[in-house]
Design the sequence.
């Protein structure tokens, strides 16, 4: 069985003490690939050095996270462009709109999201969307830029059934993580209606650890617990969830 963590920030300082062990535990739990979405200029170098240390396991993305869109967004966006011109990345991410934490830079967030979708098109790369309290704004940008199916992930998907269907119709896969193990989150019911054919697995480490680790630091090994819960929801073997989600991740990101 091969699992993929399509969204993991294990380059952050939360893992400075034991990163090697974290990767070892991931491998022991059949998590063979760990994809690394960038956050901003401060995370790019630690992320890239991790990717260089584990070239067959850790794959970097490049992008500016919506919560890092501030007054200096143009400088940050220029750095993203500069990195993209210098080396290979597996995707653009994570990008999007977050109106939960702060609405001050809403217009700038929309602009930066739209510009990074154009970068994804320019480089022929998939992109990873962070949407928080922003589904209408996200879909508006996606519709404005639409020119044939997209390739990418709705990361930490938390929408309703209709939003899931709309995302899938545009070509996206839905990233499912620890929230699916939370009682009363309702995500189990939503994905049950949507089916598991369009899902990929992710942790969003160090955030959103699944039950029974809820509230603690998340890590890529816990993909196993997430896969197990999804298998329960669909009443299938975990191997079937692993097979479909890994195939989807390979299809989107093109690794082998
Ligand atoms: Zn993330």
Sequence:
């Amino acid at each position: 069985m091969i699992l993929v963590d399509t969204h993991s920030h294990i380059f952050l300082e939360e893992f400075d003490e034991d990163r090697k062990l974290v990767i070892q535990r991931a491998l022991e739990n059949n998590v063979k690939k760990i994809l690394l979405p960038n956050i901003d200029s401060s995370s790019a170098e630690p992320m890239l050095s991790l990717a260089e240390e584990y070239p067959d396991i850790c794959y970097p993305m490049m992008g500016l996270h919506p919560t890092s869109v501030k007054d200096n967004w143009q400088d940050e966006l220029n750095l993203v462009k500069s990195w993209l011109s210098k080396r290979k990345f597996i995707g653009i991410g994570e990008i999007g709109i977050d109106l939960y934490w702060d609405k001050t830079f809403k217009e700038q967030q929309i602009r930066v999201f739209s510009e990074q979708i154009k970068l994804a098109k320019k480089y022929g790369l998939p992109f990873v969307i962070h949407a928080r309290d922003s589904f209408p704004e996200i879909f508006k940008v996606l519709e404005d830029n639409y020119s044939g199916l997209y390739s990418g992930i709705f990361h930490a998907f938390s929408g309703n059934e209709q939003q899931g269907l709309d995302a899938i119709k545009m070509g996206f896969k839905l990233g499912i993580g620890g929230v699916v193990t939370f009682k009363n989150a309702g995500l189990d019911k939503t994905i049950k209606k949507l089916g598991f054919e369009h899902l990929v697995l992710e942790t969003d480490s160090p955030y959103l650890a699944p039950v029974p680790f809820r509230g603690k630091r998340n890590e890529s090994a816990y993909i196993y617990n997430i896969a197990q819960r999804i298998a329960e929801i669909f009443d299938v073997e975990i191997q079937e969830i692993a097979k479909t989600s890994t195939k989807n991740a390979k299809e989107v990101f093109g690794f082998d």
